[in-house]
Write the structure tokens for this entry.
Amino acid sequence: MRGYPHCSTNRTKGDLFSFLVARCLVGNPRLILMDEPLSNLDARLRVEMRHEIRQLQQRIGATILFVTHDQEEARSLADEIFLFNNGKVEQQGSPEDLYFHPAARYVAEFLGKANLFPVTLRGEGEETAIYAAGSDYLITKGDIVRQSRGDEALCMIRPECWQIGPAEGDCVGLPATVVEAVFVGDRRELHVDTRIGPQTVVIPALLCRRSSLFNDRPAADSSAARSSLATDCRATTRGRCLADSEPSNHPREEP
């Protein structure tokens, strides 16, 4: 702003971002690089600017290379994500593909919360069934996409993909006990103990209010919340088998 006496230097970060974008667009570029442009903005303004960037890209038709470490920014802005790991592309694809169909454990853990546990695959094609390793607990069945060789695999289940309810008859799933239910506005995050270890389950808050599993107990009494759910509930879902079963110890890099 130096050299322009009529321009105030008391600008907000949002104003400065808009000014820099406008200066970039003067030359009518077909390719724009944005290197973590929203990192210094507050949370509310970042959401607003994501919407503005998306509208801008659609209006001018330019390709924008958007570098970010923020998973939510990557998922909400990108048509295609290139996820790097140690300088190499670990996986590329749409946000939905990388989130629901990760090719490796690194991708599954990077893009959101993931429940990971060993499983055994039985059968072929549409008759393929996934069982918790070392047990007869059927997790899911159908035409499973295999990313591993042999009968042993690592299963990835997103917290929101679990379904939880009382066990009735010979249902598919795992016996589980809800030990904690955390209210986070539009949803509840349930911390669940199972025979294969702790799992995280996400349920819409409105659905929790309608479910008999969460009725007839004081919401503020955490001990009542734990004791009101017995071990005869089961969580069922659709799973995905990943390529590697070793823990990912690499530092996270940008999508």
